[in-house]
Amino acid sequence: MSKVDEILDSIGSMTVLELSELKEAFKERFNVEAAAPAAAMPMMMAAPGADGGGEAAAEEQSEFDVVLTSAGEKKIQVIKEVRTLTNLGLKDAKELVDNAPNPVLEKVSKEDADKAKELIEAAGGAVELK
């Protein structure tokens, strides 16, 4: 198995929170910032002052907060999912769920936010992405 495959396997087994921490550590260690994909370049090259800038900014949101708005009837299941997503201890996860609305994850990618929302809603909680 090549080193690349080993790294990809390792990344594949990480939680959403661990991936977020990895991204931040990578940026700090190598002093890099993610570049915009080539497909987004024409949109970024639009004339300054063009109308509809607010809509474009909303569509280009790249970081999302996953906010638990309600634990629902299956609070224990929701606490378990929150623990899995955040690596919090039982006490901290319970406090987060009991004091909803609270952010579960902050500044995560759209894919990670959608996955977290799906898991929490499947457990019976209500989630909002911001």
Describe, in plain words, how this protein is organized in 3D.
The structure is a single chain. This protein starts with a helix and ends with a strand. The longest helix has 15 residues, at 16-30. It has helices spanning 3-12, 16-30, 41-44, 53-59, 75-86, 90-98, 110-123, and strands at 64-70, 102-108, 126-129. 19% of the residues are buried. 55% of the residues lie in helices and 14% in strands.
How would you summarize the topology of this molecule?
Elements: H1 3-12, H2 16-30, H3 41-44, H4 53-59, E1 64-70, H5 75-86, H6 90-98, E2 102-108, H7 110-123, E3 126-129
Antiparallel strand pairs: 1-2, 1-3
Helix pairs in contact: 5-6, 5-7
- The N- and C-terminal alpha carbons lie at a distance of 40 Å
Give me the count of strands: 3
Please state the CA-atom Rg, rounded to the nearest Å. Answer: 18 Å
Identify low-pLDDT runs: 36-45
Strand count, sense and closure of the main sheet? 3 strands, antiparallel
Helix content: 40-55%
Mean pLDDT: 79
Number of helices: 7
Task: State which percent range the strand residues make up.
Answer: 5-15%
Strand order of the largest sheet: 2-1-3
Helix-strand category: alpha+beta
**General shape:** globular
Write down the secondary-structure element order. Answer: HHHHEHHEHE
In short:
It contains seven helices and three strands, in the order ααααβααβαβ. It has 130 residues and is an alpha+beta fold. The longest helix has 15 residues, at 16-30.
